[in-house]
Amino acid sequence: MSRSLRRQILYSALFWSVGLFLGVGLLAAVLLIQHPVQHVAVYGTVRTHWHVLWVPVIVLLAAGLLQLRRALSPLDPLRMRLGAVRARTAVRIEGQYPSEIQPLVDDLNALLEHQEQAVRRAIAKAGDLAHGLKTPLAVLAHEAERARAAGHTELADRIVEQIDRMRRQLDYHLAHARAAASGAAGATASNVAEAVEALVRTMARIHAARPIAFDVSVGAAHVVRVQREDLDEMLGNLLDNACKWTRSTVRVSSETDGGDVLVVVEDDGPGVAAELREAILQRGVRADQAAPGWGFGLAITRELAEVYGGAIELGEARGGGLRVRLRLPAWERVGTPPRP
Question: Are residues 226 and 330 in the same domain?
């Protein structure tokens, strides 16, 4: 059964009150020593038992202090568990607390559960919406092919362009919604090297028509606090963009920076002008409007990184191409070992 915070503070106040009462009485007796003629009995007692009389005062004051610390001790683990929920490494506030605090903890857990259920319902509805739009888009694509076969090439191209735009919009918003759901449910540990190795093999097959060399230098121990699906989404977008624009080599490396892991993807292509780099990453600006050919990949990656408390930064690579630095929170930041 949880202890009562009110009762423990009352005990502490009682110890302090008795201790202070005895201390004040002892100090009053010390003052009476200055008049030994009128108070010979008090003078003799205090003078004889001077050190002994201070012992109960000190013991009571110390007991009151220890009791107060004991009463407030459950607040420290509560603060740590709230931090874990805020860091998305936990979805509930575990533990038993004093009876005055436990109702608040129960209400917070109920609120967290309600939020998680609401997010899951929203994600399910978004998935249903995306699935429902696939059939109309497929029909439109079929009609575009019929128009092309009938000689209406310009009309078919415009239809295909709009279909592609709608599909990218769906991918963009679904990726962001999935990341929000992952954050609400608590992220898991994902190994960066494993994700990069799998994606490099995939990119090598996708871009097999071009002789692209991959220079991978990723730490095997670098683990981030991100759902694996979202890590693959972010790194896949960066690697795909790099493969599209590189001339010969794509470099992938990682390093630690405080409590974060930095994943760097570089290419030796034409790069992106500095003013366009800022526009690409500006919130609310679509990447395909800022720099033709870049699609929604960087925008999706930026949104996913921000959901997990990370960031993305564009710069110039060593060979003059584009360098993308993806910053993600390391799993070790929260002091919890990765889940198998």
Answer: yes
d(CA 275, CA 272): 8
Reported as a single tens digit per residue, the pLDDT across 67-85 is 777 777 777 788 788 877 7
Q: Which tens digits make up the pLDDT trace of 184-220?
A: 455 578 999 999 999 999 999 988 888 899 999 999 9
Q: Which residues contact 69 (CB under 8 A, 6 or more apart)?
A: none
Whose CA is closest to 323, among 289, 254, 272? Answer: 272
How far apart (Å, rounded) are the C-alpha atoms in residues 199 and 171?
A: 18
Strands 213-217 and 249-257: parallel
68 and 202 in a single domain? The answer is no
Q: Are residues 160 and 286 in the same domain?
A: no
226 in any annotated domain: yes
For the chain, give the number of residues: 340
Neighbouring CB atoms inside 10 A of 1's CB total 5
If we measure between CA atoms, which residue out of 21, 113, 123 comes closest to residue 64?
A: 21
Full residue range of the structural domain in which residue 119 is found: 112-185
> Is 86 part of any domain?
no
Tell me the CB-side half-sphere exposure of residue 161, using CA atoms within 13 A: 8
**Domain final residue, candidates 158, 185, 212:** 185
- Residue 276's CATH number: 3.30.565.10
pTM, 2 dp: 0.56
